[in-house]
Amino acid sequence: MSQNATFGGWTDWTFAPDAESKKIFEQTLGNLKGVKYRLVASATQVVSGMNYAFLCEARTITAEPLAYIVVANVYVSTTGETNTTIKRQQPLPTNMPGGWQNWNFAVTGSAEEAFNQAVGNRSSLTTYFAKADASQVVSGVNYCFLCEVQTTTNPISISAAMVYVNQPAGSTAHWVETSYIDQTGREGQFTDLIK
Question: Which has the closest alpha carbon to 134: 172, 88, 169, 171?
């Protein structure tokens, strides 16, 4: 069982999944056809059995692959039977002019610069770590960053969020909003108040 699992409640997301979570991930999502999944973060919930939540990079196995974010929920019964559901997270890539482009799982270059301009040193209570980004060219660029969000208070809390940033052409990037991702794959809108 993963650390800090409590009966009925989800653990925080961990961006360094334990061996047990990795094993269940590989057994359930490792050999699916058509899409390759890579584990980014995990959480667990003790029930009559165990629920696992996996935040993943998904990449289609096609001539022109699409990369996107999913939350996969896996239930493992006390007898070892499994049930898996997968929910795609917004924004979804279209790779069309004006549409969102594929997710990048190494935030570098202009995306990293925009993230640092908009998000860096925003609050002494919360730290954001960009794990992936998608972009959309408009009059400037819209970015969506998959982030690990850590509170600096005791006890430390870790969550996952989509952070939206806009960088107008020739101007400084600014934070637009944050949408937190819970362990069931639902996104909750939260407009950051520390602008």
Answer: 88
